[in-house]
Structure formats: C-alpha cells, structure tokens
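Help wanted!
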Amino acid sequence: MKHLRSIQELGPEGLERILKLTKHMAEINTRPVPKVPALRGRTVVSLFLEDSTRTRLSFETAARRLSADTLTFSVSTSSLNKGESLRDTVETISDMGVDAFVVRHKSAGVPWQMSAWTSASIVNAGDGAHQHPTQALVDCYTVREAFGRNRFDGLRLTIVGDIKHSRVARSNIEAFSMLGADITLVAPKTLLPHDIEHWPVTVNYRLDDVIEATDVLYMLRLQSERMSQGHVPTLREYGEQYGLTHARVKCLSPNSVVMHPGPMNRGVEMQIDPQDLTNSLIHRQVANGVAVRMAVLFDLLAGEQAPTQSSLASEVS
Amino acid sequence: MVATSVEVMSASDVRRAITRIAHEIVERNNGVDKLVIVGLQRGGTWIADALASVISLIETSPSVPVGAIDVSMHRDDIAMRPIVVGAISSIPCDVSGSTVVLVDDVLFTGRTVRAAMEGINNYGRPRAVQLAVLVDRGHRELPIRPDYVGKNLPTQLSDEVIVSSDGVKVTSSNHQ
Amino acid sequence: MSKPNTRTLVIKGGMIISGSSQRAADVAIVNGVITEVGPDLRGDDMLDASGCVVCSGFVDLHTHLREPGREDTETIETGSRAGALGGYTALVAMPNTDPAQDSVAVVEFVREQGRRAGLVDVVPSGCITIGRLGTALSPMAELAKAGVRLFTDDGNGVQDPVLMRRAMEYSRGLGVTMAQHCEVTSLTVGAAMNECCSSSDMGVPGWPALAEELMVSRDIELVRLTGAKVHFLHLSTARSVQLVRLAKADGLPVTAEVTPHHLSLTEEMLIGFDPVFKVNPPLRSMHDIRALKDGLRDGTIDAIATDHAPHARRDKELPLDQAPPGMLGLETALGVVLAELDMELHQIVALLSRNPAAIAGITKTHGCEIAPGSSANLCIFDPEINWQVDPGRLASKSINTPFVGRRLRGKVRHTVFRGDPVVIDGEAQR
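Answered by r_m:
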C-alpha cells in the first residue's frame, strides 16, 4: 500500500491490518522509552496547509517514536504564502529526499493531485470535506477497545451533525460499514449531502427518535458559519434539536458511549461538559491517536506492504 | 539436491538441557533475586516458560517473572526487507536494576539477540543481561556470546535448524 | 496576406456537403470566391480531398481567445491557428477579456488582431453589461454600429431579471442577439462540479441543474415578454433542453448551443479530482447527455460550440475548488462530435457551420452553400480516421484538454480561409 488517502482506498484488509498494528504501537507507547528504530533513516514531512496543532503533533510524535526524521511545513511558515504553487512546494521538498508526506488541506482532492508530483507515500490528514482516514482508524480502534469486539455487526452507530461538510463523517461511514456496523445519520436536511441514497446508512431528522437505540453516539462539531450561510436558523435552535443536552444524556442506554473528533463547540453540539459524561470515549480517541498514526506510517514505510529500498531503486531507474 | 534430516536432540535431551540450564541460572545468580526471564518472540517464549517452571521448583519463592519480547521492530536490516511483526511484547515488571535472562531457541548470527537487547532498553536499564539458548549453531556476525547453552551444534550456513519440545532436527541440503 | 489573385485553387476528389445534399465533385476557387463546382476541374494549385468531406468552414459561436489580458494562456493568433486546424473559418470571440469587450476600442483591437493573424474571421462579441458586472448596460448601440451582433456576459450570466429585461428591450431596436450563460450564481457558490452522487461522496459543493434551468426558464419568459432574440450558451441539462423545446414550439425566437464536452464526458470524470475536467456548466450525467443528443437530433439545439477556454497549466494544477473552470475545444471538436453523434454528416455540418453562422449573423461569408459565387471559407475533413489528441502537439498555447486518451473520429485535413489554404495536410501554413 503506497498511500493512505481514503478508507475506501485502504480497503477492508488494510483496515484490519492497521488496527492490528495499532496494538503493537500501543504497547510500544507504554514502555518507559517508547521508541523503536523501525523507520530510522526515513523522512516524514508534515504539510499542514490548514491549521491543526493537535493532529500535526500526533503525526510528528508518531514519526519520531518510530525514529523517522521529521520536517514541518505549516500554513503560516510555508512559502506558499509567497505565491509558490503547491506543486512547486511538493516537488522541492521531494527533491530533498522524502519518504512520506502527511498532508492536510482545506481543498478536497489534494492528496490525489500530489501523487502526480512526488513518488513519496502520501498520508491524508484531512482534505476539505472529503476524507480523514486516520481519524476513522482511531475511532474504530477506540470502539473495538471499548466494546471488546473486532467486528461491529449489530452495533448501532449514530452520527449527529454537519455531515455535509464533514470529512470525519465520510471516512467513518466507510470504515464502520466495512466492519458491519448499523449506521444512522441525524441532521437537518440542509446539513446532509445532496445524494446519499447509495450510502450504507439510515437517515433521521430527529435525534430524539434514535438516541435510546444507539450504542455509539458520535457528535460532530457545528461551525458557527453554518448559521450565516443559512444552513441552520440559529445555533441555539440547532443545539436544542441536535445537541447533546443533559436531558438527552439521560436517554442514552447505560452501555452506550459518546464520541467526538474534536475540537468541540461547547454550548452548541455539546451542551454537557464531557468531563461529566461517564461514558465518554473522547479521551481514548485522543490517546489512541499516536498509536494509530504510528501504525499507518509503519505500514506505509516499513511493513510487509511497503516498497523496499531495492524495489524503490528499480522504480526510479 | 537431496535434503537429509538428522535428529540431534531428542525430546528427553531437550528436557534435560532445560533443567540443567535452569540450575545454572540459579547457581550463577546466587538465587532468583531480581531475576526476570524474557523469551524472544516466537522461538524463545516456550523455553522461557519452561525455565521459569523448573526454577520455581528449585527456589519456591519469590516467583520469577516471565516476559516476552517482539524484536521485529528493533532489527538492523529494516531498510532491506519488510518487517513482519510478531506477537506483541509483554514485559510484566520494571526491568531497571534487574538481571534479565534473554531466552531463545537458536543462536545464529547474533542479530536477533542484539535487537532484543535494544528492545529491553526501552523498558529500563537492567543491572545485567544474560543469554540462554537451547542451541548455538555458530556463524556469529556480531560479538554476542551465550551464558547458558543447551547444545553446541556446528552447522553449515545452508542448514536449517528446527527446535521444539519434541527435539532438535538439522536439515542439510547436499548438492549431488 | 492577400496574394496576387489570378491563381485558381482546386479542391479535388472530395465529397461536397452543401445544405442537405451531397455529391462527389471538385471545387474551383479564385480570389476568395468559389467559381465552379463540378467534376475534373483544373487549376494552378491543388488540394487533395480524396476520401474527405468538403463543406463550409465551421463557425464557433463560443471561443475564449484570452487577448487582451491573458496572453500567457492564448493569443488571438494562437487561438485562430487552433481554430483553423479544427476546421473553423470564423470564431466568435467571447468578451471576458481584460479589458472586457464592452467598448468599441477593445472590439476593434480584437478584430484587428484577428485580421493580422489572417487564419480565421475573428468576430468579437460584446458585453451585455459594463465589465460584465451585471449592473449597468454596455453601449450596445455603439458596439452594434461597430459590427457586433452577439452580446453576452459569458463567464457570468446576468443575474438581475430587471437588467436582463432592459437589455432585451434595448436590443430589439438594434437587431442583435443576446446570448446567455445561464447560471444563478447564488445557487452555485463554491461549486466545482455537478451536484450529484459523486459530489456527495467527494465532499465537493455541487452545481445543481436548477441553477441553469432557472435562468433558462426566466429568459424564455423574458423573451416572451420582450420579443428579443436570445441564444442559450452551452446548455447542459435535460430539463434545459425540454424548456427550449417548449419555447420553440411556442414560436419564441430562441436558439441554443451545446459543447462537445457536454456531449461526451460525465461527472464521474471528476472523481480523480483533476481540475482539467472542471468547467462551467459542469459535466453532468448520462441522462443529460442523452437528452442533449436528442435535442440536436430534433432541432431543439441549433449549434455545436466549443467554449474553448485555455488556462495556464499552473492554474489547472490548483486544488479542484480553486482551479478556474474551462477546457480547450477547437482542435478536438470535430473528432469528438463524429465519435459521439449518430447523425448524418450533412446534419453535423449544419450544426458546426450553417446554423452557427446564422446565429452569429455572418451568413454572407460563412456557412454558405458550396456554389459559384459563395465565399471560399471551407473545411475539408476525413470523416473516418481515428486519432488521439497529444497535448504537446496542440497549436493552442495551453494544454488543458480533457480528451487525452480518448478515441476521436474524424480530422481536418485542409482549411481554406477566404480562398487561402491556411491548413494543408493538418499543418498550419502560418
């Protein structure tokens, strides 16, 4: 597997393989010295053209724990601001000798466009509203950990919020359905994509109809711009209809869990402090982030599926 | 090309060698204080368990902790061939200040043991590291030597050595 | 450009398609005019047309020549060359230049550049509104006096219905035609492709078909109200075709065009996020393609127009949502059209030549019958040859063609412009 750009491209075997590898990485992270030489001599470049401190640090930590060298280009420091094109930036960095790019961009499709400009592996850390595969991997791993099961047949996942603009939703729908989960989307029609009859989901416009019958409640952040763009009348109305309120928490079944990819818009979709939620997995999602990303980098650059030096040499010549 | 297989240790030979090594370990270390036995995945783990079991009969307390270490990520030839991960490591206690006895079935080039020592460093700083192997087949590429050996077995580079609790077999391929 | 004009040029051995008739014959040309059509003609210079169709040169109602303003992507000269190689003898130049074609000075500049290149007739269109900003009418009477027959804000549609009504009423006195790029922009904010299953999967904002159909519908009603002549640029949806069909049935003076890319490529081409396939209006579905083809067959759609839109390579390497929309079209139009349409050659020639000449108001010299006395603006093409486009060998200054790797059928061998063979054996002569 040369790239990790979307869950669909990763496929069910790849998904399984990464989740298994994550267990190894999680063990490494418990060691007093959580570092192995697996990616020694490899260079991983973070190209974060949309701000995100948390995901970027998660990837950089992951790379360093595998002993890879890291370079960072972020939106404020990159020469892209000076009019250099993305292609120029990618080609220049590639010329320095890079094994993998971890890229986040506010435009969908950039990880695919980049493959034309570099032979390095590409990890998609979020492209517009399209995909965020490592988040989905973290979420699947976290649910496996919480429920103690590898397959999710019969498990009811409910994703609430701005599905239309959510790359996390798109990746999670692909990943969780590969593992057999029953997926329900809850949102007003304005926040659902236009054509989703072919998606493996059920749609409901009312959260209260489904909240009792859900095992995993996945809350998405609602950006305040959605109000000015006319997707919702007011944030208050959205919070009342679709937010996780105290009343709704009481309706959750005792074995169900609550998840959120972060960052949260408190008072909008989350009206209860997650610290007060006994069944929140949000901390586990954050904690598992590094191990999952270690597994991804390892799989691309050192694992059984990775191209070896000799095969790379013959590719180049 | 004809492959010939010879049994060089029987099941009882193996059992006796393990018993002897267990005694040697206790004798060399003046007991089992701060001793940790760590088997290398995958070949050494059953031997580590067997050693711990015999030791517990010799010195009933304290019981000796047994762990396992996956060396795949610490190998030094990572760039040249893909890593196949083994089972997950589990080190049951803090190894700092302990004497760690690494256990493997066959000692060959020494690279696996080197990787294991590096892996152990992730968990702490042992006071000492010793090495117990069931079979030493020679052809060292690194300055690694075993402290406890079941059997010294000179082999050809092309030979295959297979170890289990049922015995040790050497398969040579002779060119006609 | 004009040579001593006593030499006779004979186009030999071709199949003449003129109107709805077709016959094997030679064509003799002197001084830019056809002098004789018949068998075994003799002359001083000869063009071999064996195995080829000989017809009036194509007329493109919709070309972006990018000069003035974006000469890095195309100039009037390179665009004219691309047109000539594609069998075109006239190009209606779209007015979204910089400065825009909303003044006589710019219009005359464009016309003059076209004359200097001497490869095709460059027919400038004029803007409907100043700067194409949609707020104030441009000096249409002045522009009409300077020879402009077609007015459009292409690139944009006129959003304000009141302004459009005024433009239509004003145009009635001038005998000109309004051409509309139908797009209600408030419905297409941020859109990079058709609104459909793929755009939902890709998380890319989509252009709903309604954004086009609403304006088509509005302008049809405004035509009904004002009696103005309106031409619909690049129709792309099934419902747009149906609306125009009904309007024509009501006898309204509307015409319509469709592009080769909207007849051949679907929204799935965007799945790889390659901005080469980004265009306004966007590529749509098979259902829309079928309806557009039906529209061509039954006369609802009058013409094929390329909407040739060169863009710098740099710009087409931007992320999909940032890249400018538009594709090349002049050199591949015939090849795509013959590969896609199951129609008689004479019907196709009408769509490429006679009908657009009428809409552009240049029937005196283009889209004419092949008969003595007609202007010698001709296209000689091989209708059978299969070929593929090589972006490195295009005459256009840009390379953003969406047809790489696609099998095209039919290629221009010679193009005669005002009696002058500007393309011989597929090579431009200047």
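OP: Thanks! One thing I noticed: Strands of chain B lie at 2-10, 35-40, 66-69, 99-107, 128-136, 148-152, 160-164, 167-174.
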